[in-house]
Amino acid sequence: MASLRTSLSVMKVSVNFDVCASTGACTQVCPEVFELRSDGYLYILNESPPPELHDTVIEAEELCPTGAITIEQ
Ligand code: SF4
Question: Whose CA is nearest to atom 2 of ligand 1?
Fold first, then answer.
């Protein structure tokens, strides 16, 4: 049972950097996962965020103006 819960809670986050416009919207919603650095590029700090971050990662995906964020669950 525990392993089933674990597999259901796995999330994989990716960003299409060709599409990302470095607006920083995702970093404001979920700074634990998305970071905009001084070089002007977005970095993913954790491609497999823990369950407690899933809601904010989804919010970041919805807020991204260019649709650059993809979430696999
Ligand atoms: S919200 Fe979208 S476009 Fe803006 S920095 Fe994040 S991934 Fe890039």
Answer: 64
Ligand 1 atom having least distance to the Cα of 66: 3
Architecture of the domain spanning 2-72? 2-Layer Sandwich (3.30)
User: How is residue 65 written in tokens?
Assistant: 């103006």
Ligand 1: residues within 6 Å at CB?
Answer: 15, 20-26, 34, 42, 64-66, 68-69
Note the pLDDT of residue 9. Answer: 82
pLDDT tens figures, 18-63: 999 999 999 999 999 999 999 999 999 999 999 999 999 999 999 9
| Residue ranges per structural domain of the chain | 2-72
